[in-house]
């Protein structure tokens, strides 16, 4: 009797231990599955402005049927545009020059380089929040800038771009003689981009070719910011628009006049951002996703057109009133973001 009770107790203990081990293994399996999400953890994704959307699932690994070819990276450089920064260097080599409003109603430029890298570019200045939205149209662009407001830097560092400041790439920057800080910082682009990206990197949505039908004769256009002024005057002999800033002809340090082939005055929303400069002035946010009106200048004529950019990763489409695509002239393009009326 006593022997049977002892054997039964041992058998029961072994059964309880087996159930415990099984439960532990099951729990461990659930823990591992929860952590790995079937081997692919969820990670925050970027919402288009450098902000993190923690609710979005991570992109899946492409299947063999999905295209894997991506456009090459290009170089974007933030350029100082106040009077003390002129004349500038290397701006005439850019494929595209974007002009945006910054604090105090002043202007700043973003020069985009894909088909040609000059020896030097500058003066280089700081980035703004709306630059992140504008740059989403490109694949993994390199952004060269002098720095940014302290609270903005985390957004820049999380954005899908290669942020290259003097602290990260000191060998690519130098201080020019004859100018005071901060208007004397210059970049050697080829120290950031060993090879020229090429035209495939320009995923802007821009089209080039014969001029659209219609248009009106136009030999001079002026765009005004609160504390800055751009004037584009048509030169029939050069077949280009000559740039003047604040009433003064805009020339480079080598004496060349800035003269784009196409100018786009794009009317956009300009709202307040969450950031301020050291004087307490709010930093404007230039909204480049959406739709609106624009004026395209080429060949001494002007066209009133529509623009559309559905999401940040898209380029911008320019169409006539009947929906036909608008072609730009071959050569440098300036896009001036003017506040919509």
UniProtKB/TrEMBL annotation:
Domain DUF3048: 66-193, 223-335
Chain residue ranges for the region called Disordered: 36-70
Pfam families: DUF3048, DUF3048_C
Cross-referenced InterPro entries: DUF3048_C, DUF3048_N, YerB-like_sf
Bias type Basic and acidic residues, positions: 43-52
The protein, known as: Lipoprotein YerB
Organism: Streptomyces griseorubiginosus
Lineage: Bacteria, Bacillati, Actinomycetota, Actinomycetes, Kitasatosporales
